[in-house]
Amino acid sequence: MTVREAAKLIGCSHQVVYRLCQNHQLGHRRIGVGERKIDITPAHVQEYLDAREVHADPTPITQEAPCPRPRRAPRVLVPDYIGEFLSRSKKYGNGRDRVAERNSGGGRSTRK
Fold this sequence. Notes:
Layout: H1 3-10, H2 14-22, E1 29-31, E2 37-39, H3 42-51, H4 80-88, H5 95-104
Antiparallel strand pairs: 1-2
């Protein structure tokens, strides 16, 4: 059978069947010069489907508590006097002063 026919039997696209053949997960034969034609028998398809069958677990299902989400670290509020220090320090620049100046309308305006 062709790759497209095998795809219909398996219930997937022909691209998936090509990938399964490439990864040696689905048995097949390559035929012709350069071995370009792929021939798949119904036995190959049945073997693949049997290998992928999942059986139900006979153990009873118990109700478990849901896994709690990890807690986020609490937000740390920076006191004003430390914030002032950080805004004036050379390492952090004068970012707050520039924002305050921009919001207050002070300084030169670049818009015309």
